[in-house]
Amino acid sequence: xxxxxxxxxxxxxxxxxAEIVSxxxxxxxxxxxxxxxxxxxxxIGYIDLFAGPGRYKDGTKSTPLLVLWKAVQNPDLRKMLVxxxxxxxxxxxxxxxxxxxSIPEFEQFKHKPQVRNSEVGSExxxxxESMNMIPTLFFVDPWGYKGLSLKLINSxxxxxxxxxxxxxxxxxxxxxxxxxxxxxxxxxxxxVARAERLRERLRTMGxxxxxxxxxxxxxxxxxxxxxxxxxxxxxxxxxxxxxxHHLIFVSKGFKGYEIMKDIMSRESSAADQxxxxxxxxxxxxxxxxxxxxxxxxxxxxxxxxxxxxxxxLTMREIYEDHSVGRPFLSRHYKQALQxxxxxxxxxxxxxPRRNSFADHISVSFPSxxx
Length: 370
What we know:
By secondary structure, this protein is an alpha/beta fold.
């Protein structure tokens, strides 16, 4: 798909992506602004280096405009937000600039949005690496693979309060890994040694396992870089058979991970017992009944009895320790613990109120499952 054709219309997939990013930006900004003020700092940032023209051909706002529209509604954000948008296509840059300037109350931004026209490469990585940057939400949405690297992500993520959201075309990455012509663009995604090991493992894998291996390798690379919390969200094609894109969130703090998982859960197309699939699948978004059969909350109860056997922890400690890498939200842990306590499988102190399980309640698990 060419750059131009991507913006011909606003597809549901693109809308979901933009919703996830803009909703997280608003939640992130409120948390980080509060901390920044206590630290005596007066700026937070948002960077999008592959920004596009701002609107789809049908007039729908793309991610940059959704972010700025949220920002302009809040007096503190209008004063504190510093934004940098970039695109290598000069026509996209002109279109984006016009779209930004058409925002009502645009002039009330203390720091006017910067719009640049350059190709992303080693120069901007070196620039970011040399800077002690303000807390920044970094959105990376390349057309394929050129320009994106672990070093680029780390150059922003290294700073306090900074998170990153990466959206990429899975098919291009999958094909590019074994294409010698684009090897120089693919290696920076994983670093050279890791990329070579991955290529070797992929040789004998089928499509589904290959996808899981690639996404897991990206997640592990981000974790090794310092992104302690990594959360992927999958987009399937129109038939619902294959992955088309992945969105990966990376943060150094559990709070950001918790917020983003809740947002992704709400944007998922399916859920089992209220536990979301963390994916958008056009083929299943109207067929929820099919996803009620696996009963993941029942399985969670068994996992808790096994994983915390003989231990006593608060509900919040259980949630933070156990939920990383799993699709469950705080409310799922509260429901599971409530069920276990009601049938006497665990002891809770103080005794929870009916239909409630507060974060501070201590839960004692038996040494062996009852």
